[in-house]
Amino acid sequence: MKDSTVFTEEFAPPAGIFGDYRPLPELYDEMALAQGRIRPHWQPLVNSLSEYSSKELQLRWEQASHVIREHGVTYNVYGDPQGTDRPWDLDPIPFIVTAAEWRIVEEGITQRTKLFNLILADLYGPQKLLHDGLLPPALILGNPRFLRPCQGINVVHQTHLHLHAADLARSANGQWWVLSDRTQAPSGAGYALENRIVLSRIFPDQFRECQTRRLVSFFRILRDNLRSLAIHNRENPNIVLLTPGPYNETYFEHAYLARYLGLILVEGGDLTVRNRRVFIKTLAGLQPVDVILRRVDDSFCDPLELRDDSFLGVPGLVEAVRAGNVAIANALGSGLLESPAFLAFLPGLCRHFLGEELKMPSVATWWCGQKKERDYVLDHLDQIVVKPAFGARSYKPFFGETMSSKERENLIAAIHEHPTDFVGQEQVELSTVPVWMNDELEPRPLVLRSYSAANGDSCNVMPGGLARVSTASEDPIVSMQSGGGSKDIWVMSEEPVTQLTLLLNSVGTPIHSTRSAGEVPSRVADYLFWLGRYTERLEDLSRLLRCAVSRAADDSGPQASPELTSLARMLVAMDYLPARFLESVDLVDLEGELLQMVYKPDRLGGIREILGRIRGIAFVVRDRCSADTWTILNMLQAGDSDDGLAMPIQGALARLNTLIVDLGAFSGMEMENMTRGLGWRFLDFGRRLERSDHIAKLLFSTLSKHVKTSLALEPVLEIADSSITHRRRYYAGAQLSSVLELLVSDESNPRALAFQLAAMADHIAHLPSDLPNTTGHSVDIKRTETLLQRLRRTRTWELAQAWDHNTENPLKSLLSDVSLELNIISNDLSHLYFSHTVPRVS
């Protein structure tokens, strides 16, 4: 077959950074011919980028990488040491497609999505395809992805696929082929959107010059379709995105799409089924769910009817769907069509259902469940790829040309023993695209993932998609899990590109939402509460260590100064330093311990250990974080390494100063940018509770018998960021009475105990109070108010005087009682709001 792309212009020679680019022989290169000349539709981009030097393009790539890290774009490659922190790999050179060629892709994908819906409707309905012999029963009934409990369930609008993805590859003759389909929970659309945001930012002029079609219309249609699925609450449906959780490889995308589309991100444990309806566990009780956009695989969605060892799904979900009380996109059981064995039957099924030929051909496939096809596979093992037919077994693809004789024998035996479990496929030589590697452009194999979204009786194809490239030119597998990279796809428009926004619906009128603040899931509130606690704990520890490190840096001689000695012993009393510092404080020994608190990753309660906790919590609630907030959270991690163990103590001081500034920025974002809903209240509640506990323990540590209290007061004011206020107010050195007044009973000081308790009492007053008390616990505002009134009545000068005269310990008793009450309040809050599972009482 001849090259399917028709050009009317002369092919121009490459220039600049493209001058040394050499396509691989006998392969179709998307940008250049074998002679090295540039294809016309690439020419505007090549001309523009040719003005950049290699160094300038490298700087652009580094800028893109910085934006990706700033946005927290990650992809979890299982087994990778970076785990969930592995940054998304985006190549700076986009993939260009003409408008004419994309119309061919759109027509093929649209037809394919329509065909798949008809196939699924039959297989989970009358099953005429089986009765009429158009599909062999073993292909369906022997496939573990055929969900028998879903047989006969009516799906909304008779649409099984609301989001469909097809992986495309171009062979050497220029023909696009479908390699595989993703029909149960297609991933990558969110990454495609993020790729577009990043590339259009680093190449804005080139993006406009290419008249690139926007992606927003695709996501607007997807969102509107989800809203149309609502069965009960059609005016303002509750739509959730069901995720397997933060350890899934594409969790970033789940959180990203939930935030972008305005959905509630939930895990299986956030949902429950009551009376055949699905509810989300919120702070205001159980709220009904109308539509679920799932990113959990079929069989894991319901441990009651589908897979009993699943912890990711919702017991009773299938029954709720069967009763018509909730819509799921994609419909349960749609993963059946992900079996590559179906590719062999699609041409006949297309003629049967649509009366036309398949517009986008699939790669040649032979299912070994049929004798003729099995014989062909066995006779041509050296020329094809053998894959598992159903994905249920642990078999990996076998590339015949690279198999050893032993592997060949084992594979033949396995095919004879379980023939229905295997398919053979033609090995397609993938087309190549230029990829920026090692400061130059190199050709790499390409696979394009195209997406279609249901749109009434038809579907809408994303004008672009996700282009994936392999890490090596000889690598036959293009997969993100194997460490591959990605590209943005620029589909050129023949007409001026219109600006669209997701904020308008299909007729251009604003969408109004009446969603209540109570729809914060209990799990999310729990994480926000602890995010507040751990960020405050990190700030408190950073201020404490900065105070000690700065004094250690100024000291000279083998022994610490009296003030530093008192400070070290306070750290012992607060369980940060070992007890040996109660005897003597060697300066070198103390510096080593302080550096470990800053830099050692496994130091319990140290800086990096707390940072790890913050990272884990923030990752779970990232759909609740704005882009600016996430940028600040990423800044906290920027210096998270153990390199500082080899640094002087001044380096630790610089790291602590940076942390305190970044934490101040996070606090500012919380106070100035978060709406005052329940999510914010739990985040701030956690912060106030943690700060109260820290102040109480800090003051209590100054009363240790090993600490000279008078020498500890100035450091306490510094740690509590109240030194300037004290000097301005008292015009004298720190005394116990003045420090207690400022840090215990002064409600105007944001660092005082009374200020924190007043804020917590206000939060408790605004929390839902009509939850059923199933655990025997409640959060009693009177407990907090009683403690606050006790502080207001406290005469700090009398407490200081009693301590100075050693007549009694009312000060120790007060601080101990504060810590005890705070612990009770925290436990009651957790029992009532983070554990309930029953409906709200009306």
Q: Explain this structure to me?
A:
The chain is of the alpha+beta class and 842 residues long. It has 4 domains: 319 residues, no CATH class; 63 residues, Dna Ligase, domain 1, CATH 3.30.1490.270; 150 residues, no CATH class; 162 residues, Up-down Bundle (Four Helix Bundle (Hemerythrin (Met), subunit A)). It is 43% helix and 12% strand. The chain contains 27 helices and 19 strands. The longest helix has 33 residues. The chain is elongated and about 100 Å long. The N terminus and C terminus are likely disordered.
Give a short synopsis of this structure.
With about 850 residues, the protein is of the alpha+beta class. The protein is built from 27 helices and 19 strands.
DSSP strand count = 19
Query: Biggest sheet, open or closed, and with what strands and sense?
Result: 8 strands, mixed
Number of helices: 27
The domain tally reads 4
Radius of gyration: 32 Å
How much strand?
5-15%
User: Can you give the helix content as a percent range?
Assistant: 40-55%
Span between N and C termini? Answer: 70 Å
